[in-house]
Amino acid sequence: MALLAPVFSVLVRLQLVFRCYVLGRIELLLGFEAQLLMQMMNKEFWKFDGKPSEQGWHAVLVCYDEQEGTFPRAAYWDGGSWKQKAVVAFGEKRDTEESAESIAYENDPDA
After folding, report:
1. For residue 38, is it within any domain?
2. How would residue 37 be classed by pLDDT, with cut points 50, 70 and 90?
3. Which among 6, 39, 72, 96 could bridge 104 via Cys, Cβ 3.0 to 4.6 Å?
4. How far is residue 62's CA from residue 72's CA, in Å, rounded to a whole number?
5. Calpha distance 30→16 (Å, rounded)
């Protein structure tokens, strides 16, 4: 039991709470600031679980590398998968790619 205490302590300190969907697999990300995590989780705009109910252009957050964080983008949901890789969260549907990306930037958790 004593051997597990340091491991648990490290995991707690790394704030192992944020999930990143990469190529259909859930991977845990390390090293995010706790404040950024809370901002992202508290924003009702972003949905981190589930799938969009409508096909079309959606505001999304993408994560290519956990050390770089997330970036607002627009991605097309075809009803079965995203046409953009590394989508970790999605928001509102828009009629065009430009308007979806615009609303994504307006709700950027880093802003």
Report:
1. yes
2. low
3. 72
4. 7
5. 6
59 falls within a domain: yes
Q: Would residue 111 count as lying in a domain?
A: no
Local structure of 68: helix, strand or coil: coil
Residue 15 inside a domain? The answer is yes
Q: Which amino acid is at 25?
A: R
Give CA torsion, residues 24, 82, 80, 96, to 10 deg.
160
Q: pTM (2 decimals)? A: 0.62
Tell me how many domains the chain contains: 1
Tell me if 29 sits within 8 A of 41, measured CB to CB: no
Evaluate if residue 76 carries a pLDDT over 90.
yes
Which has more confidence, 18 or 57?
57
Say how many CA atoms lie within 13 Å of 8 toward its Cβ.
5
CA distances from 56 to 13, 28, 98 (A): 39, 28, 12
